[in-house]
Amino acid sequence: VRYWSNIPFITMPLSRAHGKSFAHRSELKHAKRIVVKLGSAVVTRGDECGLALGRLASIVEQVSMLQNQGREMMIVTSGAVAFGKQRLRHEILLSQSVRQALHSGQNQLKDMAIPVLEARACAAAGQSGLMALYEAMFTQYSICAAQILVTNLDFHDEQKRRNLNGTLHELLRMNIVPIINTNDAVVPPPEPNSDLQGVNVISVKDNDSLAARLAVEMKTDLLIVLSDVEGLFDSPPGSDDAKLIDIFYPGDQQSVTFGTKSRVGMGGMEAKVKAALWALQGGTSVVIANGTHPKISGHVITDIVEGKKVGTFFSEVKPAGPTVEQQGEMARAGGRALAALQPEQRAEIIYRLADLLTDQREEILLANKKDLEEAESKGRLALPLLKRLSLSTSKLNSLAIGLRQIAASSQDSVGRVIRRTRIAKDLDLEQVTVPIGVLLVIFESRPDCLPQVSALAIASGNGLLLKGGKEAAHSNQILHHLTQEALSLHGVKDAVQLVNTREEVEDLCRLDKLIDLIIPRGSSQLVRNIQKAAKGIPVMGHSEGICHVYVDTDASVEKVTRIIRDSKCEYPAACNALETLLIHRDLLRTPLFDQIIDMLRVEQVKIHAGPKFASYLTFSPSEVKSLRTEYGDLECCIEVVDSVQEAVEHIHKYGSSHTDVIITENEKTAEFFLQHVDSACVFWNASTRFSDGYRFGLGAEVGISTSRIHARGPVGIEGLLTTKWLLRGDNHVVSDFSEHGSMKYLHESLPLPQRNTN
Hints:
The structure is a single chain. Helices cover 38% and strands 18% of the residues. The chain is α/β, with parallel strands linked by helices. It folds into three domains: 25-91 and 118-183 and 203-314, 3-Layer(aba) Sandwich (Carbamate kinase); 324-411 and 433-533, Aldehyde Dehydrogenase, Chain A, domain 1, CATH 3.40.605; 548-701, Aldehyde Dehydrogenase, Chain A, domain 2, CATH 3.40.309. Helix 12 runs antiparallel to helix 16.
């Protein structure tokens, strides 16, 4: 037996057609029947007198959107007392002002005292107005709403319970949104509450239990409880160490300290948790979230239903491993321990990982075979992605070579002094390299990315969170296991974490307190999505790889077809593959132009004609839909330009600042191109495919950045470092350097320590 208010009732719910509650947030999008509970703090204004109309309108819009998707929505609302208080205060002020005017001839409203308003009277005065407001708002979305007022006795009496249940089911069947509230006009008087500034609000605590009760009675899939806090914290919100609990499990309440209640209402977080756990026990999933925050209230309900990480999700299924927040903290601590190692120790870890890639080759390829077989059987991956997913003996050997290059070049990467200045006598300043912190690398269909990025993170002393695509799950698992085995060599196993939870990428991008830099490795769509989703975390990468090759009038016949073939056909799915071929107008209808076209046809490259190129042809290939297209396959666009200047202008207008090439024997023209093209990589008489960390001698890369801040181009160890300033003094204070002080600034540049070049 549990209690709703002071009335006992049996906690055994009616049999549920859909069984247990959802185990993961990602399943919430399947919720059909949803109860949204609006606390007084959500519905009322900050002055507790009247309704927060903007907030309420936003909530109605979200509920209407979900209702029109075919879901069955119910609202448990507070607010009648606050609305009634506003109306009664207005009537009292009006009455007092009339009496004062009659007695004194003056209207001294500022001296009037507002009497304490009885809550039931406020509820009686506010219920009709609150419902009229809901009806007016829902009408804007062609949705009908119906009011249901309940009291404790409606749940105490079995017949009344069945009547209530039948009424709600009939309303839902007719696509009507039931709006449920306790009938505060007739409930017993509550205990006085001095914090309520003239009115005792009695509905919030009851409405928490009411919402849970209704959710279970109606076999609801999801209960959303909106309050004025982000969710459940491990200590009172506002305290220094308070952390939002993402997922709350039954039994965890013993480890939680509850703070004070909200600014209005008699309920608090403890009451909400008890109600939520009871609903969870009855088979209803629960999320407690903030419905008052101006930045999220406009989409908080829809975000929850879409499975986004909002508020606290109550689940009965506890994952076997750590949460992503815990993994982030482990990576932070592990990264700091890694940075504290000697350079030789970090290099030993990378050498060990390189050895493991070759020693455990058979196990790696077996795991990769499972991924390939599953991907092919499901038929979800395009051929270019299948190629990226595939590992081979030669790929593993190349990986091992690249890792050894990283180890050899990382000896003095962390803690290297890049500037020394003598500020004054005995006051020396140094700028030294340090790790960025914790990196989040998100990659698709690229299991070879895992050891590459891990080695770069180890060499630069960064903690690392890895989120791979599920299509490479088996490969990623064994490669991460080998990485942790190598890290165990010096006791820093936790520095590299593989996120295996069902965490959405968008949710990971919101962990701004745990992650310092996001590096996406995948399609242009993935990069764009991450750049859009990242909240306060910088993203290193490029959204597109629209690479150009410009063939000048002075180009060598022998070089042209060779460079173009390599740029386009060697690996067309790569981000550094040729996508647009620019040809000088004077080369049209020449043997060189014919050789280029013949070579592309032999290589089965589909040609799209740019607007100018199409105008020169009687029968042209299909005209390109956009000159900003990254094909990622054996396709390319050909366009005609009149000069090197026009080629540069075209690249700036339609390119992605990735990699662009000129083929010419004219050094002056080449230098103009090299100096004026504003891309991360600009080449002369060389394939676009050289734009790669391994080919640049960086050992490997975490990606190619087209950003103009920090790292640009292929990003190796140097791009994963930042700096800090070290100042060593001897009782120095700024006042000594004032106009009449005893010390003078020197600002002398000092020689740098000799680098270890071995």
